[in-house]
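Office hours follow-up: a student asked to see two folded examples consecutively, so here they are.
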Amino acid sequence: MNAIIISVGTELTSGQTLDTNSAYLARQLAAHGIATTEHITVGDDRAAIADAIGLAATLAELVIVTGGLGPTEDDLTRAAMADALGCSFVEDSACMAEIEEFFRRINRPMNAINRTQAFVPTAGQAITNKVGTAPGLYARLGKAEIFVTPGVPSEMEWMFRNAIEPRLARQDGMILHRIVHTFGAGESDVGAKIADLMKRGANPLVGTTVAAGMVSVRIIASAETPEQARKLGDEMVAQVRGRLGAIVIGEGDVTMATAVGELLRSRRQTVATAESCTGGLIGKMLTDIAGSSDYYLGGVVSYSNRIKTQLLDVPEDLLIQHGAVSEPVAGAMAEGCRRRLGSDWAISVTGVAGPGGGTDSKPVGTVCVGLAGADGTETYKSVLPGTREIVRLRSALASMNYLRLRLQNSQFPKSNV
């Protein structure tokens, strides 16, 4: 069985809201052996929604639509569903009773506009919603079963678990998704190392994607049983890890900060940060993780040269001779931070994030990183392309990656940031 997921809402097509519903549904369907072939996003347009439903029903055996079931004028999915089915829609007395009971339960008066949520296409039927006011919808169109849920994630998830999932016949087979995250090489370099694993139509199916400054390898394994799918996934992950070596950060939900944190925790060591161009971003990433106080002591945002000298003990003559954006200053920042905060490790970043401030010798994107530990201090210099935001993000990731590799005793060339 193949599925198409349709997300409805101008807030989605305009970029004001991120569509998380499609990702959730695709993962849940994969666990039932159902492959999602398309994600379609449609604005609040009755004809466009009806066309999308009609087309999807000719291409897939299962269509799930989310959004557009609210009580306001721009909630058009109910009417569009009726158009796609070629029928009218009428008020369902049982739905109306459930909506009225919902408002009684929360002790709020019901606005008359909520009556529109009780309308159901005559060729379909309603799906109960126990956590909101908008009932879902179900109908058959040609070869396809069509389910419509509210767009509110909590309501959509409840309806999937309690109304849609029980009606899905488990398919013969299992689809397993794995993802391996890397940092330190471009997508083309990663792709070249695993090119023979990325053949179209292969099982597992392997591909790459870039997000948040990291290159990730996607693995989709299909098999008759969960055990066989896991075996295929495990074998491919092992191959990918073997090909890519030290640039692999981890799998699944692992981030650079979680990888570094686990290494520090396992060694019972601590880290502190001295940041200039990143403005506290490294500290933010590290402290986004619950329990990071086990290994992160704190940091200094030394944006000005005066703070570098006063709080990090960077010699003034070093700043005069080399400039704030230099490897000697980055090294001194890391050493001063480690000494002042009493940490096992200290990482520092100083650079020209842009869009202005660059020179011929230090163009925009020039970044220097320092890493100080008990066994000495290392510094790294790179020129990173991209906007101010991208330069800052990659600088933060690179600095943590140097620490990760030191903790793993891995070699990491200075040119690979």
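And the second, which I mentioned at the end of office hours:
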Amino acid sequence: MAHVLNAWSRMPILSEQLQHREVFTTDLTIARALLQRGRNYDEAVRRFSPYRAIQDPYHDAREALLALIRRAESNREPVYLFVNNRLEGNAPQTIEAILESEPE
């Protein structure tokens, strides 16, 4: 059974979660990037709706998700990353920014 890493209002930030080797419980990785730590869902909806653009870049989550991609590539394992509009304001643009930060 796979542990699911979470960027969520009441969880430690992703980079802290990644420091614990025991979060890697199987040969695949799953992470949900939902909210910045300390920001609740309703606040994120008010702040970011209608989700047309990134409004508050969350660099810790971006760097941690990129680290998970690199780890999965290195281990030749699948990684499933779910990014929510309420993380930064626009999930497709967040994903694009993460992928553009990866050197080709």
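Two things to take away from it. The radius of gyration is 13 Å. The mean pLDDT is 95.
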